[in-house]
Amino acid sequence: MTIILSILMPLLGIFGNIFLRQHKNLRDTFTFLVSVLTFSAVFAVFLLTGGLQQEELSILTVLPNLDIAFKVEPIGLLFALVASGLWMLTHLYGIGYMRGTNEDRQAQFFAFFCVAIFAVMGICFAANMFTLFIFYEILTLSTYPLVAHKGDAKSVSGARVYLGMLLGTSIVFLLTALIWTYVLVGHLDFMPGGILKEKIEVGLLPLLLGLYAFGIGKAALMPLHRWLPAAMVAPTPVSALLHAVAVVKAGVFTILKVGVYIFGLDFLAESGASQWLIWLAAISIILASIFALMQDNLKKRLAYSTVSQLSYITLAMALATPMAAVGGGMHIAMHAFGKIALFMCAGAIYVATKKTEISDMSGLGKTMPITFTIFAIASFSIIGLPPFGGSWSKFLLFMGAIETEYFVIILVLMISSLLNVAYLLPIVGRGFFINSGEGKEVNSIKEAPLLCWLPAAIAAIACILLFFYAGLIQDFLLPIVGGSL
Questions:
Q1: Among 43, 87, 169, 332, whose CB has the most other CB atoms within 10 angstroms?
Q2: pLDDT band at residue 290, thresholds of 50, 70 and 90?
Q3: Neighbour-count burial for 92-108, b at 16+ CB within 10 Å, e otherwise
C-alpha cells in the first residue's frame, strides 16, 4: 500500500490545482501538503523495507511475463527519497518564483508538475523495463507543457526540440532494445546480476547496449544532448525539475538500472561490451564542460554542466565495477542537491534583477550575499571539494577507474574537476569581488523573496550534511553489488 500511495499521491495535487485554481494560497498550500504526504509515503517504504529488495506487486499482465508491476530495491528507493524530498523544496521555490515574476497559468503549471512527480515515482518503483518505459514516456509528455509554459515562440521552439529528441530516441532506440531483450529472455524483469548472460552472443552485446544508452535520451549522452540546453527557455522551477528532481535523474537512474539489473556488472566486465561507452562518457564529460565555459547565459552554463555531470553516472555504469556503480548511485543524490541549489540561485537572481547573463552579474554578491554564498557552497559540492557531498561520489568513481586500470579516465576526472572550477567559481568571484560600474542601480538591488532563496539554502546545507553521512548512502546501496566493495 505504501508503494501505491507513493505513486498515486501526486495525482491529488492535479485535482487540487484544478478545483482550487482561483484560490492561490489554498491551492499552493494543498499542493505542498501533497508533496509532504508523498515524501512521507516513500519514507514509510524505507522504514518498512530498509531498502532491501522485495517481491514485486503486479497490477496488470499485458503479455506473458510482461506486467505492469512495482517493487522496492535500493537504487529506486534512494531516487524516490531524493525526488520526493526535493519536490517539497522545489514547490516552495516555485511559489516564490512564479509569484515573483507574475507568471500566468500558475495552476496549470503546478498541475503538470504533479503529473511529472507521479511519473517519477512510477519510474522509481518499476519492477521491470516495461513498467519503467511507460512512466518514462509519461514523464516526457507531462514536462513538455512545462518547458513551453511561457508560450512565446522561443519557448515553443525549445519545447519542440525537447519533445522531439526525447520521444524520438525512446521510440527508435529504447523500444527496439526492449523488444530485442524480451525476445531473447522472455521477460524484462530487473534481477540482481542481470538477465542477459548466456542469452545473447557476446559480439551483439555492444549493439544492444548502444540501443539502451542512446535510447535513454534523458541521460543526455552526447551527441543526443541538445534537448537539455534547448529546454532552458522554461521557467527556472522547471529547470530545477529537469536537472535535479525528475527528468535527467530519471535518465541516469535508468542507465544505472539497465547496467546492474538487465546486463549485469559482471557480464559487462567479462565481455568488454561497455568499453566504447566508457570513452564516449569521458568525451562527453570534457566536451560538455568546455561548452559550459563558453556560455554567458547562466542557465545554459548550468545546463552544459549537467550534461557533463550526468556522464559521470553513465561512466560509472560502463566501468562495471562495484565501486563505480555505488559511486554512480551516490552521485544521483549528491548532484541533485548541488544542482538544484545552483538553479534556484539563478532563478533568485532573475527575480531580483531580471539578469540572465553572467557578464551582467558583477557586484551582485555584495547586494545578494545569501544567494551568492549558497551558489558558492553548491559549486564546491559539484566540483567535488570536501567537506561537501560531491567529493565522495567522485572519489568512488576515481577508485572504480583505478580498479579497472583505466588510468586515462582518472586524468579525465581530474581535468573535469578543474573545468568545474573554471566555469562555476568565476561566477561567485564576479559577484563578490568585481564592481559593476552601475553604482546606485546595483546598490538598490536586494535579495529575492524568502521562498526564492530559503529552499536553495536548505539544499546547500544538505550538500554539507551529505559529506558526513555519505557512508550511510554507500551502505544503503551495497546490496546492488552483492553487499561489499
A1: 87
A2: very high
A3: bbbbbbbbbeeeeebbe
